[in-house]
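Supplementary Data S3. Sequence and structure tokens for construct A.
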Amino acid sequence: MADQAARLRQIVGSRKEQKRDEEQRDAGLPRVIAVTSGKGGVGKTNLAVNLSIALGMAGKRVLLIDADLGMANVDVVLGSHARRHLLNLIEEDVTLDDVLVHGPYGVNYISGGSGIEKARAFSDWEQFCLLQKLAACGDIADIILLDTGAGLGKNVMDFVLAADEVLLVTTPEPTALTDAYAMMKAYSVYAEEKNLKLVVNRVYEPEESRDVVAKLEQTSERFLHMRFSCLGYLYEDRAVQLAVRHQVPFLIDAPDSVAARCVKGLAESLLYGKQMKVSRGWKGFLQQIFHFPR
């Protein structure tokens, strides 16, 4: 009975989240989604880039902002180089178009640059210029994805708490789960409106994802009194590492790979609330066991 009650609460919570997202879309406002993680190395940036492309493939106008301060990891995954970054917008002759990098499938990208933390020291006029120019982002995007840094630093939490929705990326490793829970704990304390979805990366079987969700759900409900939903999972896939080496998003480098099918499933889940179900299939099984090339 306890399991059934917990499942019912999860369903009700998911429906409330979906209704809130629908109301936001009906109002013509862009969805602002922070993609974050409790620790580095869980594939957060790779997910943010490829999810942006999958949403673009679905016909959405997508803007990806690299808020991982000073790392420029989105540049690496996209294989691009931004001539100007976010903070160049304080310069009088720099427009929003000047800092936009046009990516595949209509996805636009803005580099955060290495000095974004200095924005707090800007004069009132500089902050006003930055705000005025960034406000136009709402006119060019249906969805704005923020690739935050990892961990619980102030800059990371500022982005996470300001976003309408949060995608928390983790893997089944115990250290990743511990850090994911730490992020959930901070979010539960400081977020006024809670809308957190979990993505489990690098699983070998869907059961791994369900185990991760069950563990975090049990701990979250018991100690944080906070519910969350699971957006879906991504299989461990060698195509992802190869795409990073090629500096091409795996959705383009290996469009038929299992990871690509997973990220498309995540996009559908994010847009339409569909439950994600992706099977490796026999070929995928053999590729994983014997490391056959794609």
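Construct B, processed identically:
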Amino acid sequence: MKEAASPSPDSGEMLVQQFLEGTLDDEGFATLQQELRERPEARDRYLEAVKLDALLREIASGKDESLSKIEGGTNCPRSEGRRTGPKKTRWGIALASAAVVTAGIMVIAPWNPRPGVAEVTAVSGARWVDEGRMQGSWLRRGDPVKLAKGSIEIRYRTGAVARLHGPVHFDVTSRNGGFLHYGQAWARADTTASEGFTVRTSSGVFVDRGTEFLTTAKVDGFSQVQVTAGAVDAEVEGFERKRIEKGSGMGIEPGDIPVMIRIESGDETPAFRFPTIPPPSAGDLADRARGETEIRLISSDERGRENIPHQASGSPAVILDGRGQSGNDRPEESFFFPNGATGMFLLDLGREVPVAKVHTYSWHLSEVDVGKRRRAVQRFTLWGAGEGDYSGRHPAVDPQHGWTRIARVDTDAFFGVEDEPDRPAQQACAIHSNGLAIGRFRYLLFQVIPTPMPDGLPSRHTFFGEIDVFSASTP
């Protein structure tokens, strides 16, 4: 019977190299263990490599300024891109150099099955929920990071960088990714080894494709991603994989039927061109020309105070005319509320229908205050109610009367806006499911939240240019 071929010395050295760098997977680890048990020459190479690795780390960390301990000019194998410089000495490796040989069998110390996969490279203003993480410490698979306040940056051995902002709970789940329970995680994965870096949430999976992206997760299961460079593949159970390109974002509203929220910036022309979201439509279910949909303003608080448009706003009906604004600062072609308070408007579709998609469009780049785009951001919660469920009052006042929350939208969060110039002047939001109805509704209620302004200025409301509603039967 022909004996199985023994692993080559080159393959054995590669396994040891990957082990020392913390990139060895479970299958490779099992192979290395078997080779060390069965081949004395492999054990000799292993002991030499781990002792040399530990010595080099001591020298790099400044603990030993002499190279005199390195005899015979032995070279430690290194893969391209391996990081050098000060690091915490891995005492586990030094201990492994004194590995136990019992009955001729090499035993690797039990600390090894979960080698460190990510190093803490920065900590700022941290208030920890549980175990603190110091700069220079290492995280292993399964280690949690729980911050009540502040931020922490971790660098994976693959080269991926994750910056976590508190309050946040993030678990390091693999050598190239993690699980975000809640909070914000910014990630950059621009090395060959880090391609495919993955952030999971309770409602979706976001996979890097040479990218920078921001993931946000809430404790109730809502999550969203915004891509600032490259592309991200988004995976949601029951949906086809979606690729999100630079400048676009997507949210996932949990529920019996998960709802997708896609945000994109436009070309800032009256054509309202977006990467994937179509321009405003005159053929949607809510178009004014059909004569079936009524728009009305309703009470915005418990006192029953009536909503009114801003004095410079166009009629509410302008958002159902099948087109957006003709220019970037056209208040008369937009619908918006006065500064300050939350605004509420309702679309009555005339009958209960299976609503498949809702598209909203905004455009604002001030011609008076040059460069200001304060009324472009969309911040609203969309609610739905069926034929017999609408009470005439909004969910905050009468939450038990049949309202269903469909989606929460904050385009500033999607675009990662930190300063006003970061905000796209023309924006579109598409709310939909996987080709199915997101629910059967007659009433769609928009609870519109104003955008806070700097320097104590009154908060401003969105310049809505168009809202389109599509049913499952709409062409």
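The chain is about 10% helix and 35% strand. The two ends are 69 Å apart (CA to CA).
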